[in-house]
Specification:
9 helices, 2 strands, mainly alpha, two-stranded antiparallel ribbon, 5% strand, 175 residues
Length: 175
């Protein structure tokens, strides 16, 4: 694998939501922590911390669940996925489910903004203790879902870093 930052592919996000591949728990944990912000070295530390196989990241890459990001977090790619498509999106072999309602550009941008801020807060301030919080963030498919998780994230930040920090973070998020 080449050095750099990695993110989940559409298939990776589907796996988090559906658990169709029945990944071993350690591999699923590593997949959950791939957030488009961590470097390969950081992800290897996460993998070692959860006692995942040494080749966990290579396996996720080979299965098409993660991919390298060229220059850090790819907000445009995430916005494209949030709108319901993107490069490498799988072509269904059977009849499709009813598509999700179309999102406006503003809704997609709000989703990206919240997703980035919340994932960064978990990574920077909660670390591995934020595993379940990151799981909740990953399960959100729209900005409204992320907003529902915000109070719980704020509470976790207050517990980890103090009430003053949590208040400051919340104000920054609201702009």
């Amino acid at each position: 694998m080449r050095e750099g930052i990695y993110r989940k592919t559409e298939a990776g996000r589907d796996e988090i939501r559906d658990r169709a591949r029945k990944l071993p728990p350690q591999l699923r944990t590593v997949l959950l922590m791939v957030d488009g912000q961590r470097t390969l070295a950081e992800l290897r530390q996460v993998a070692a911390g959860v006692k995942a196989p040494e080749d966990a990241l290579e396996r996720l890459l080979a299965e098409g669940l993660i991919e390298p990001v060229s220059n850090g977090f790819d907000a445009a790619g995430l916005a494209q996925v949030a709108r319901g498509g993107g490069p490498g999106a799988p072509v269904p072999a059977v009849a499709e489910e009813e598509p999700p309602p179309a999102r406006t550009a503003d809704e997609a941008n709000e989703y990206v903004r919240l997703y980035e801020a919340m994932s960064e807060a978990v990574r920077a301030h909660l670390g591995l203790r934020g595993y379940f919080m990151q799981l909740k963030i990953e399960r959100c498919t729209d900005a409204a879902g992320l907003r529902e998780v915000l109070p719980e994230l704020r509470q976790a930040l207050a517990k980890a870093r103090g009430e003053e920090f949590a208040t400051f973070w919340e104000r920054q998020l609201q702009g």
